[in-house]
Design brief:
The complex is a heterodimer. Helix content of chain A is about 75%, strand content about 0%. By secondary structure, chain A is mostly helical. In chain A, helix 8 crosses helix 10. Chain B is an alpha/beta fold. A six-stranded mixed sheet of chain B has the order 6-7-8-3-9-10, with helices on both faces. A four-stranded antiparallel sheet of chain B has the order 2-1-4-5, with helices on one face. The chains are: A mainly alpha, B alpha/beta. At the A-B interface, helix 1 and helix 5 of A face helix 2 and helix 3 of B.
Chain lengths: ~260, ~300
């Protein structure tokens, strides 16, 4: 075998995608249900007490944030949990002894996580369109941005999955970093509503840019330049993809 | 000259403060059945894992059919099928699907892999379990699955790390038959085992590894002849002083009319011993021989048991 192992790359990607679809009750439905609950609770109760933000009804305003939260948590947890699971269940030797390069291995995991991130993000997007008639101002840019963020966070997940030795470490990343940063990234508010110091603090939160960018492509409103959001997403994609592939190539944490 | 299937020279590996391999030299000819024996922690699994890319070496030459395992990893890994010691767990996919995945990792499409998968399911008695998840299989079934997985891409070299550990005697014998068949069909096999009987029965050549180095190599028969101790026991009446001279070149003991000769190969000298005894008027009541096993050789060399 010479050149790229396309069949191997396709097979491992298929396995990664098949893995999360086979347990869709754990990997697809929960995000959809919790997002539906947010829409119902905010739509039917709180929206009447909270005014519009940037001329957008409150339930619509929070939807891009919910889409983004679902996208990035699912994308990162797919690659990280799959990698750690393979390590702990002795499945990793099967792929490490196969004629697959570090790049092919990394891409398969990243694509698997990207697909899960996109499926979850797009389902919440469709829920918004169907339940509350959410307009999508720039459909192609929306899909493109969801794809880019899914790829970035799937790569981050692969990096974390390689570094982690236990489920506890992965849960810590999710609970102490990703979820707080998502909530503080402006899912439920515009950062313009915050005091100056908190606004400045929000600008160092990368997830703020992801939510801000999607809010622009979906609703046409934004707190800061959409270009910055795109550049931040691109920067994270390049950074995490490179780091995940280099770590895989080095074999640290997965080979002895 | 034929290129060896496996060539390892001066292989070193350390894990932090522990030296796992201290210059392993090993050559396995194409089509050979080779057994790597050693006590726990001797370096068997590390050697195998370096060959298959699971462990990174510190230094040394590691080649498969003359190609470097790092530079030409696609070629070298395609030549090897490995059945690991640890039994895998998979929660998501049925056994048959896992075999197709495994073939796919080696660049074989599902369509092309189908006849091979069917053949292996049939041959290894897994046909009825094709839709089962691994957790539903017994230990023996999981071992068969391991072997099917190692063979699904039809590799030239089969590496088996403790393939019969924890399985019942009947299945062990079935697997031995299958391994013999694979070997007859031209597969090069590298086996690690803690059943020395397994190595003695199956392997053409064994290497004894201890403290990260191969300390002795040879065929089981040659090793036991060279390093083992064999004996001939003869129960006689009519011992006389002339026999002392006749047996002056032999190492023997006499106690209660029972002679015990320590020899290298009983079959080589038994006839002469019997002839000398008969010529000197001794009555022979019984003759028995005893031979060292590979296990005795192993114990002598390493000073410890294999487990």
């Amino acid at each position: 075998m010479t050149g790229t192992n396309w069949v191997g790359l396709y097979t491992l990607t298929k396995r990664e995608v098949g893995r999360f679809f086979s347990v869709y009750r754990q990997t697809v439905l929960p995000g959809l249900i919790s997002s539906g609950l947010y829409i119902l609770i905010f739509g039917f109760t709180l929206e009447q007490r909270i005014g519009e933000i940037d001329g957008v009804p409150y339930t619509l305003f929070i939807l891009p944030g919910l889409i983004m939260m679902n996208t990035l948590t699912n994308a990162s947890s797919n690659a990280s949990s799959s990698m750690l699971q393979m390590k702990l269940l002795q499945q990793l030797p099967d792929i490490l002894t196969a004629p697959l390069s570090s790049l092919e291995l990394s891409l398969a995991y990243i694509i698997g996580g990207t697909v899960r991130g996109m499926v979850n993000g797009i389902l919440v997007l469709l829920l918004g369109v169907l339940l509350i008639d959410m307009p999508v101002h720039h459909p192609l840019a929306t899909l493109g941005f969801i794809f880019l963020v899914s790829w970035a966070f799937s790569s981050m997940g692969l990096l974390l999955g390689q570094l982690a030795d236990s489920w506890d470490q992965l849960a810590m990343m999710q609970n102490f970093f990703l979820t707080p940063l998502s909530f503080l990234g402006g899912i439920f508010y515009s950062i313009k509503m915050l005091p100056d110091w908190a606004q400045q603090l929000s600008l160092v939160n990368p997830i703020y840019y992801m939510i801000n960018g999607l809010r622009y492509t979906v609703l046409g409103v934004y707190d800061s330049s959409p270009l910055n959001s795109f550049l931040m997403a691109l920067f994270m994609t390049i950074l995490f993809t490179t780091a995940a592939i280099l770590l895989m190539k080095s074999g640290k944490k997965i080979k002895q | 000259m034929n290129v060896p299937a496996v060539h390892i020279s001066g292989l070193h590996k350390s894990y932090e403060d522990t030296k796992a391999l201290c210059g392993v030299d090993l050559t396995i000819k194409d089509g050979q059945f080779y057994g790597l024996l050693g006590p726990n922690g001797a370096g068997k699994t590390t050697t195998i894992h370096i060959l298959t890319g699971l462990v990174l070496k510190n230094e040394g030459i590691t080649e498969i059919y003359g190609k470097d395992i790092v530079k030409d990893f696609r070629f070298t890994r395609s030549q090897i099928g490995i059945a690991h010691q640890e039994l895998p767990i998979d929660w998501f996919f049925p056994l048959e699907k896992l075999l197709y995945f495994h073939a796919g990792y080696y660049g074989i499409t599902q369509k092309k892999a189908k006849p091979r998968v069917e053949e292996l399911l049939e041959r290894l008695g897994l046909k009825d379990k094709r839709t089962s998840r691994l957790r539903q299989l017994s230990g023996g079934m999981k071992r068969r699955y391991q072997l099917a997985k190692a063979l699904v891409h039809d590799p030239k070299i089969l590496i088996l790390d403790e393939p019969t550990a924890g399985i019942d005697v009947e299945l062990r014998h079935e697997l031995w038959d299958y391994l013999r068949e694979l070997h007859q069909n031209g597969k090069t096999i590298l086996l690690t085992t803690h059943y020395i009987e397994e190595a003695e029965l199956l392997c053409e050549k064994v290497g004894i590894i201890d403290k990260g180095k191969i300390i002795k190599e040879g065929s089981p028969a040659d090793l036991t002849r060279e390093l083992g101790k064999a004996g001939i026991n003869v129960h006689i009446t009519g011992w006389n002083d002339e026999l002392k001279n006749a047996f002056s070149d032999y190492s023997y003991t006499l106690e209660d009319n029972r002679l015990h000769f320590t020899v290298r190969d009983p079959e080589e000298v038994m006839a002469s011993i019997i002839q000398i005894l008969s010529n000197h008027g001794c009555q022979i009541h019984s003759v028995s021989t005893e031979k060292s096993s590979l296990e005795d050789v192993f114990l002598n060399l390493t000073g410890k048991g294999i487990n």
